[in-house]
Amino acid sequence: MFPPKLLFLNAIFVALWLLAGCVSIPPMSPATDFSIKGTIGVTEGGDSWSARFVWRQSGERFEIDLWGPLGQGHSRLRGTPDRLEITDAEGNVRTSGSPEALMFAELGWSLPLSLLLDWLQGRPSPEAPVVDAIRDPSGRLTDFRQLGWQVRFDHAGKASVGTLPRRITANKPGYRVRVVISDR
Question: Are 62 and 117 in contact (CB under 8 A)?
């Protein structure tokens, strides 16, 4: 038989342990405000596209300006993870609830916008499982797989601060997206 004091302490320990199991840790939220400049290249099969970009993020709302060589083909993408509006160089506006589908229909290529927001910040999206994560000797994430994408972060160069990558390469069968960040 255990002394009453020990039973009481064990009961408190068990109650605290059970309560701890009910506590959830909120997912890492994206930075609320940032601006990133750089270039993006997309390869699908034998076709490829490239553009310069400026990505401005405020909370969950984004605005991305894209333009080709010599400023040609300017497009502006505005939206949230669930909705996208594309304005082309002539001022024509298209909207859709599926950002990736609208990008493909209007631009001929698409980006995984819902994932890319986190990838630009040097982390996988908290909304999807991560497989085969690899870190460099300093502990920075360099490679992982997420939702069918094989992602590589390159931290080299002066634009890289802490865990923020300078270059992001994401591949899935028949498709590659490469982002090079020139200014944060």
Answer: yes
Q: Which residues contact 29 (CB under 8 A, 6 or more apart)?
A: none
Contact between residue 138 and residue 163 where contact means Cβ atoms under 8 Å apart: no
pLDDT digits (tens, 9 = 90+) for 28-60: 344 568 899 999 999 988 888 899 999 999 988
> Which residues make Cβ contacts (< 8 Å) with residue 176, sequence separation at least 6?
41, 42, 43, 44, 169, 170
- Residue 182 phi/psi, 5-degree rounding, is -100, -25
Cα separation, 113 vs 94, in Å, equals: 17
- Encoding tokens for residue 146? 């997420």
Residue with tokens 């596209």: 49
Domains of the chain: 33-183 (2.50.20.10)
Give the pair of three-digit tokens for residue 24.
């959830």
